[in-house]
UniProtKB/TrEMBL annotation:
K(+) binds at N65, D126, S160. This is Bifunctional NAD(P)H-hydrate repair enzyme. Residues 16-214 form the YjeF N-terminal domain. It comes from Dokdonella fugitiva. Binds 1 potassium ion per subunit. Catalyzes the epimerization of the S- and R-forms of NAD(P)HX, a damaged form of NAD(P)H that is a result of enzymatic or heat-dependent hydration. This is a prerequisite for the S-specific NAD(P)H-hydrate dehydratase to allow the repair of both epimers of NAD(P)HX. Bifunctional enzyme that catalyzes the epimerization of the S- and R-forms of NAD(P)HX and the dehydration of the S-form of NAD(P)HX at the expense of ADP, which is converted to AMP. This allows the repair of both epimers of NAD(P)HX, a damaged form of NAD(P)H that is a result of enzymatic or heat-dependent hydration. Keywords: ATP-binding, Isomerase, Lyase, Metal-binding, Multifunctional enzyme, NAD, NADP, Nucleotide-binding, Potassium. Its cofactor is Mg(2+); K(+). GO terms for molecular function: ADP-dependent NAD(P)H-hydrate dehydratase activity; ATP binding; metal ion binding; NAD(P)HX epimerase activity. AMP binds at K403, G404, A405, G406, S407, G432. It comes from the Bacteria. Its EC number is 4.2.1.136, 5.1.99.6.
């Protein structure tokens, strides 16, 4: 498993509980002191993000998350703010009971939640449930969440109703404008529904010593933004053959644009040579629009053989189709012994007849393709994306990119990287074709499959963010080419 970098390390909720317990038992930090530190960090976040707020509404549950909320409410009182606190229950447990008493001693009043009760404030603090909730919100808690919608929200540790392990919510869920994660990042805050529910994310480690984390493996990591670690600056005394030859295969009738996007993405990300094997009908259009791509009309495996011989990396699948032509190219490609990025229709063909790999392979499924590869369904894949990407990587002995909100990259040995970039404008035709070309270009320039996939996903997502700016609707795949070139050269890393 990965080594620990606090800003990049992601943990399961069970692991974070183990860190909490180590901080108390091994490091001698009382649980109530940890609660105080959490409240201090969250209140500082609130004042920084909403400096003009004068009235604070607080939702407090009965457990430790509610204890954090009570202590934050006490800090707000002492700062001269109006506090309207609504408690889900009439009492609290453990250290949260002491936090509740401290709030009351400071002059606070807790209103008990009821059918007509909702907190009032310029900002709402969500302290209903923390990471321990593993069921949908229901009853009064769900009603409180519904009545509190439409106001700025600060969530403590995790938005109530969100599964902090998987990033999914199966019922009512707080939609926060900001979430302060305590002790360590919970892995589910960066994928699936969490992308919409968490808002801006902040990490507060509560000044825990390194000893609290010892012996607790990191479950996953956030993607690295620095391409320079894998692709150093180029020497001057080089030629195009030093940077690999990508062969992009696909573009059945009517889908020539898909394979052109893949080929151009490979060029823009630094591949020395890029050839395209496609239907003859597409060659003229590709050569006219992008003459740097060496497009060839290919009818069968025999015509493909010399192109495969010259290539160092294959980008297989965009627009390939599921007919006889696509199947012939698919079979020839996967028996060539070349490193390969497998996408789109090639993934569907792979699901029909799984293959063993003789060289580096990267699979790039969206949830529907992942479901076919696993013999499952989309809902099951999305219910636990971490489990899905790990099983795909293990089963297919390849690096796997599970695309979507918070894309995951998994390796056969269990490593997982989560991409924190990207935007909803990237849910448009051709984006996956571009990603295939990006990863193929990195493979061609000497990256192994793991580095090419995780850095390729990061480059692609960051280019999408740069191209979208504050207007994601209407973003098209070719908009990524200019920022991709800038980013692959280390700008903004």
């Amino acid at each position: 498993m990965p080594t620990r970098d606090p800003l990049a390390s992601l943990y399961t909720t069970a692991q974070v509980r183990a860190i909490d317990r180590a901080a108390i038992d091994r490091c001698g930090i009382p649980g109530f002191e940890l609660m105080r530190r959490a409240a201090d960090a969250a209140f500082a976040c609130l004042r920084r993000r909403w400096p003009d707020a004068r009235r604070i509404g607080v939702l407090a549950g009965s457990g430790n998350n509610g204890g954090d909320a009570f202590l934050l409410a006490e800090l707000a009182l002492r700062a001269g703010m109006d506090v309207d606190l609504v408690a889900l229950t009439g009492d609290s447990s453990g250290d949260a009971s002491r936090a509740r008493a401290s709030f009351v001693e400071a002059g606070g009043r807790a209103r008990l939640a009821g059918n007509s009760v909702a907190p009032v404030g310029d900002v709402l603090v969500d302290g209903l449930f923390g990471t321990g909730l593993k069921r949908p919100l229901d009853g009064l808690a769900a009603e409180l969440v519904g009545r509190s919608a439409g106001r700025p929200v600060l969530a403590l540790d995790v938005p109530s109703g969100l599964d902090a392990d998987t990033g999914t919510c199966t019922g009512a869920c707080v939609r926060a404008d900001a979430t302060v994660s305590f002790v360590a990042w919970k892995r589910g805050l960066f994928t699936a529904d969490a992308i919409d529910q968490c808002g801006a994310r902040e990490l507060a480690t509560l000044d825990l010593p390194q000893a609290a984390y010892e012996g607790i493996a990191v479950d996953a990591e956030l993607a690295d933004a620095c391409i320079g670690r894998a692709l150093p600056p180029r020497r001057a005394n080089v030629n195009k053959s030093r940077f690999g030859h990508v062969l992009a295969l696909g573009g059945d009738h009517g889908y020539g644009g898909a394979i052109r996007l893949t080929g151009e993405a490979a060029l823009r990300c630094g591949a020395g040579l890029v050839s395209i094997a496609t239907r003859a009908a597409h060659v003229g259009a590709i050569n006219a629009a992008r003459p740097e791509l060496m497009a060839r009309g290919v009818d069968d495996a025999a015509a493909l053989a010399p192109l495969l011989e010259r290539a160092s990396v294959l980008a297989l699948g965009p627009g390939l189709g599921l007919g006889d032509w696509g199947r012939r190219l698919f079979d020839a490609a996967l028996t060539s012994g070349r490193s390969v990025v497998v996408d789109a229709d090639a993934l569907t063909l792979l699901a029909e007849a799984p293959r063993a790999w003789s060289a580096d392979a990267v699979l790039t499924p969206h949830p529907g393709e992942a479901a076919r590869l696993l013999g499952s369904d989309v809902a099951s894949v999305q219910r636990d994306r971490f489990a899905a990407v790990r099983e795909l990587a293990r089963r297919h002995a390849a690096v796997v990119v599970l695309k979507g909100a918070g894309s995951l990259v998994g390796a056969p040995d269990g490593r997982v990287v989560v991409c924190p970039w990207g935007n909803p404008g990237m849910a448009s035709a051709g984006m996956g074709d571009v990603l295939t070309g990006v990863i193929a270009a990195l493979l061609a320039q000497g990256c192994n499959a793991w580095d090419a996939a995780r850095l390729g996903v990061a480059l692609h997502a960051r280019a999408g963010d740069e191209a979208a700016g504050d207007a994601p609707r209407g973003l098209v795949a070719s908009d990524l080419f200019v920022p991709l070139r800038r980013l692959v050269n280390g700008a903004g890393a």
